[in-house]
Design brief:
Layout (H helix, E strand, L loop, with lengths): L2 H14 L5 H8 L3 H13 L4 E4 L3 E4 L12 H17 L2 H15 L4 H10 L3 E3 L12 H13 L1 E9 L4 E15 L2 E8 L4 E6 L3 E10 L8 H11 L3 E8 L3 H4 L8 E7 L2 E8 L2 H8 L7 E4 L1 H18 L1
Parallel strand pairs: 3-5
Antiparallel strand pairs: 1-2, 4-5, 4-8, 5-6, 6-7, 9-11, 9-12, 10-11
Helix pairs in contact: 1-3, 2-3, 4-5, 4-6, 10-11
Keywords: DNA-binding, Transcription, Transcription regulation
Pfam family, one: HTH_11
InterPro entries: CBASS_pafABC_assoc_protein (IPR051534), DeoR_HTH (IPR001034), HTH_11 (IPR013196), PafC-like (IPR028349), WH-like_DNA-bd_sf (IPR036388), WH_DNA-bd_sf (IPR036390), WYL_dom (IPR026881)
Length: 316
Amino acid sequence: MNRIDRLTAILTHLQSKRTVRASELATRFGVSLRTIYRDVRSLEESGVPIIGEAGQGYSLVEGYRLPPIMFTKEEALSMLVAEKLVEKSLGEQSSKFFKEALIKIKAVLKSSEKDLLVEVQDTIQVLKSNPSQVMDKSSKAFHTVLEAISMKKVLLGSYVTFDPEKKTERELEPVGMFHSFEQWYLIAYCRLRNDYRTFRLDRFSKLEVSEISYSTAKHPTLKSYLDQVSAEQKLHQIILKVPDGAMKYLANSKYNYGFVSEERVGDITEITFMNSSIEGFVRWVISLSDLVVVKQPLILRNRLAELIEEIKTMQG
């Protein structure tokens, strides 16, 4: 961030709170306290009425207001994503207040940014949200996809499949993104496969926007595509807790039941599956019921208990 941008951001930050400490500004902008002191002095010399109180921090004179703030395209798109996530993460009342506040923020956007939000808003959906894991290493790919969608440009990417682990080069016409099962996914028309495919964003080792344009008119909307998939196949997220000694019994068979990922927690491995059939899954996992624990969902745990009782009755 150059100095002009930092001065503007400091001024915006000062207006957002009653008082702001110099150490808070230094941390936010990754600069030294001396730099902050110098920046604040420059703002004062330019006529901004800043009050500095020893031990308290800086504040703006009551009544001083900035003119409407201009947002960048990336910042405007980030607001749209935040709105989608908050809608799923907060209660109805809090979500309502957030949306009302966001409307006021959107009011100061330039016309081009407003048009962009209207055009892109239907290409992002949040089906299920875990606020602590909505973004991580997918972040860079996420913003690259948003840029491609907004510009109607083909994506060029190197995608690594899970099993077998294999890298392929893809040319993708993005339809949209959705968040579910703690991951962001891209729906796109794959020119390599000549069909629509779903890609996990964190599996792209490289992703960039090309100069090749594509028409959105020939593609379904994200909502209609997801509705179709949902009607064809309802997926359940299943998590099993497996001790070290039992992992060998799942090593090969797990791939037949929608294996997604595994995470080490102490001497236990939590394995995540996505499977459309609770009944089919429970009849596999019952053969491992003395070795594994079903963490979720509750419907699977209950069905497993019922099936064990049915077996007892039949054998008794």
